[in-house]
Amino acid sequence: MQGIRRVTSHLIPLLQRDVDTDQIIPARFLKVTDKLGLGQHLFEDWRYLADGTPNPGFALNQDQADGAQILLAGDNFGCGSSREHAAWALLGWGVRAVISTSFADIFRTNAVKNGLLPVEVDQATFSALREFVSANPQAEVTIDLETQRVSFGSGRTTQFTIDAFSRRCLVEGVDQLGYLLSKEDEIQAYEAGLDAC
Amino acid sequence: MNPPQAAQARTMLSKIWESHVVAQDPGVPAVIYVDLHLIHEVTSPQAFAGLKARGLSVRRPNRTFATMDHSTPTLSLDLSLVDHLAAAQVRQLEHNCREFGVPLFDLSSERRGIVHVIGAELGLTQPGMTIVCGDSHTSTHGAFGALAFGIGTSEVEHVLATQCLLQDRPKSYAVHVDGRLNPGVTAKDIILALIAKIGVHGGVGYVFEYGGPAIRALDMEGRMTVSNMSIEAGARAGMVAPDEVTLEYLAGREYAPKGPDWDSALARWRQIPSDEGAAHDGSVSLDASSLEPMITYGTNPAMGMPITGRIPTPESLADTNQRQALEKSLRYMDLRPGQSLLGHRIDVVFLGSCTNSRISDLRLAAGLLDGRKVAPNVRMLVVPGSQAVKRQAEAEGLDRVFRSAGAEWRESGCSMCLAMNGDELQPGQYGVSTSNRNYEGRQGKGGRTFLASPLTAAACAIAGEISDVRALL
Prior knowledge:
The structure holds 2 protein chains of 2 kinds. By secondary structure, chain A is α/β, with parallel strands linked by helices. Chain A is built from 8 helices and 7 strands, in the order E-H-H-E-H-E-H-E-H-E-E-E-H-H-H. The longest helix of chain A has 13 residues, at 123-135. By secondary structure, chain B is of the alpha/beta class. Helices cover 31% and strands 16% of the residues of chain B. Chain B has 15 helices and 19 strands. Chain B has helices at residues 12-18, 45-54, 84-100, 115-121, 153-162, 187-198, 213-216, 220-228, 244-250, 259-269, 320-333, 359-369, 387-395, 398-405, 454-463, and strands at residues 21-23, 30-33, 36-39, 64-67, 104-105, 130-133, 147-150, 164-167, 171-178, 206-211, 237-240, 282-287, 294-296, 304-306, 348-351, 379-382, 408-409, 430-433, 448-451. Chain B has a 5-stranded parallel sheet with strand order 5-4-3-6-7. In chain B, helix 6 (187-198) runs parallel beside helix 8 and helix 12 crosses helix 14 (398-405). The chains are: A alpha/beta, B alpha/beta. Chains A and B meet through helix 4, helix 6, helix 7 and helix 8 of A and helix 2, helix 3, helix 5, strand 8 and helix 11 of B.
């Protein structure tokens, strides 16, 4: 995984709360054995109407979504199923970061492990970003992971929270499996204790 | 973090957590050991591919068990019944399990079934264990006093390779359920009422510990139903302290300890419940005596109400986002604020899923359907949770009850809970489902789900519309 320090892009507003992973990628697209191609089905059932044509009212189908890499999402984003396919689908489409007031636990874990930034902001910042994107749909927002700052508009910046380990993993592209494998001695010692029981 | 004092009262979560920490570096989540890793066809292929790419093996195949449930056919066990992608995924699991030496309960196995049903019935799930699976309903296994939670596919790869996970310590949340359930009200109604009370976000960051007289009075299958849906309130895990009910369930099961091992296991298991006075980080209370059968009206599991209730009006909600969410849900469901659901049209009844597909669930539904018929406007699917549940039901004649009532009797699997295998609602259809999620399109694109208990589902099947089971008791 490549390290990621900064994302600059305009925003895709998807403001409703409790967006579940079944919406991000419906179960019928989980029959894959690799991680590829899921981006084309991102939010499939919201993105397309019953006749298969794009739903003009949906955020991803609007002009401002073209080339955008940051999703501004309502509270509790990614709730429900543990499917990591949700993170793969977002990345596959081109989303590099999601800003929300909170994330579901498993989604957040999956995001970090794939280099997708979960940016948790307070309600006031969220409201400010919502108003900003509404007034300036094409204006850019910068997420700086090293300083934990979101900046937008004429010099407005605000802190966001992310735990130190997740930040390090994202910035340095830490290989978490590599870290676990480096604990071989401790794992062996633990297992020796189990066998002694 | 200071180590706990010997005399300090500890929660069940603390005890299990602390006994599984393998390493803890400063500023890094704990490395915790996984006692039991369950895998299935949908969330494992990319993890095995990752192992292969790095030249790694499965560290503890004897702590790893695989089954196939999500995309498998239920009409019969013939793979030609599902599409080629689903069939290929099943074949890939067979291949991976052979290559890495992982025990697999395949389509021909008598032990196969929904991963969260067979773990318990085989005795793999035991008190005090850490249990993970690439599936959010792994919380089910917490009913035995285990710390059990869903993980993503990257973490599946981590556990396959190291038998360990990097985890931040979760907080503990006490859910106290007082009183006694009234006739027609079940474990499913307890958990739907809890989620309606605290919301789909209420448990994020926590592990629930369910207790109180109404939880103690549940059998293991009821406790599994409750623990199963912890994730629907955002909690990754839910636990019930082991007691005599737990031990009685476990004794003699295939993978449960035997002889002297059983005795030493008992000594360990008796230490697991939270100490008297242990402090939790959050708590909530419910009174089981005041509960009615529950039903959901919206598109997340917290949008639920008593069966005799009325759908809330957006004006009654303080929060703008909640108002908008309710309005969006009701548009999708084609329902009105203030409406009662009693008498509302339904098209399908689904009895199944890792929430409610065990023998006691089938017995409850069959008890109501015996001598009655599924209404002609309703299609009812009964999908047992495992092949063992299916055999037991057939031995008791429940399959004949369902069939003569007009319901379909299927092979075991996840089926219409997430509609991966072709068992699905059609656009616009209304289904009453004993499963766990009523999200938009969850049970089929455009399908609309009412979540309810097996008793309520059976009552609705008979009436051909949303109905209060208590009228039939």
